[in-house]
Amino acid sequence: MRDDGLRAAIIRLVVVLLIFCPRAASAQGEAFDDVMQHVPMASAFAMRACGVKSESPTWTEFIATAGVSYLVGTGVTYGLKHTVKEWRPDDSDQRSFPSGHSMYAFAGATTLRHEYGHLSPWITVGGYGLATLVAADRVRRDRHYVHDVCAGAAIGLLGTELTYYLKKKYIKSKILDVSFTGQGFSLYVVL
Fold it and tell me: ω before 121 within 30° of 0 (cis)?
């Protein structure tokens, strides 16, 4: 993609984020970090939708990889939350360890790096920078301790790295497509 096309896609992405993120936050009465935790992953999807070529050759592979990375992180994070039962700094509940917000932010940033980091190092810096701000805001608002957000960040990053590693190791096709036939799912692989 030419530099002008990339610039136009980034401008469209920024416009979409400026329009929809404040509305989502105000409509639900949620805080900054409740919306911003998903912005790195949403950025990867928005860039793909704007026509920026990602490392995944098909939408199906792109969505499957991103979805599995979120599922792995969610399973580990919420399994630990309900096992460890650490009190939050504000004593609101016993689901402090690890931080789910940090996990989602870093999983999204890692997906963004894998899919679009080859275009510019600033995409990677932006994704991880925003994820770090989300984690810091969780500590600042007394929702988590520092070790909670560090563990959440590690789970998000490592879960996504594991997903991409397994994808490269076991899915060696140039094209992977999944379709719903009405009665079941069909997997189409071109080797």
Answer: no
- Asked if 180 contacts 130 with a C-beta cutoff of 8 angstroms, the reply is no
Contacts of 9 by beta carbon, 8 Å cutoff, 6+ apart:
1, 47, 50, 51, 52
Torsion of CA 179, 167, 118, 74, to 10 degrees: 80
Taking 3-state DSSP, the helix, strand and coil percentages for the chain, each rounded to the nearest 5, stand at: 70, 5, 25
For residue 84, what are the contacts with CB-CB under 8 A and spacing of at least 6? 97
List residues bridging with 186 in a β-sheet.
179
pLDDT tens for 160-180 read 999 999 988 877 655 555 555
179 beta partners:
186
